[in-house]
Amino acid sequence: MWHDPGLWIALGISALFIVVGVAMHRVFIKILQQPPPAAGKADSHE
């Protein structure tokens, strides 16, 4: 069973999805923890 190339491809793709999911989770948490931008700065030129 462990000599089947299809098994290693499936495990590699699964591991890749897990790594990408963890990285995206960290990015989203970092973005959500930032304070919201000040609303007055965007409309100050009008």
Distance between the termini: 68 Å
Please identify the structural class as seen in this structure: mainly alpha
Cα shape: rod-shaped
Query: Please, how many helices?
Result: 2
Overall mean confidence score, pLDDT: 85
Q: Rg to the nearest angstrom?
A: 21 Å
Low-confidence stretches: none
Question: What does the largest sheet look like?
Answer: none
Name the helix and strand elements from N-terminus to C-terminus, one letter apiece.
HH
Number of strands: 0
Q: Roughly what percent helix?
A: over 70%
Q: Write down the oligomeric state.
A: single chain
Strand content: under 5%
Q: Would you spell out the secondary-structure blueprint of this structure?
A:
Blueprint: H1 5-33, H2 39-42
Notes on the structure:
With 46 residues, this protein is mainly α. It contains two helices and no strands. It has helices spanning 5-33, 39-42. 0% of the residues are buried. The model has no long low-confidence stretch (mean pLDDT 85).
Quick overview:
With 46 residues, the chain is mainly α.
Features of this protein?
single chain, 46 residues, mainly alpha, rod-shaped, transmembrane, membrane, transmembrane helix
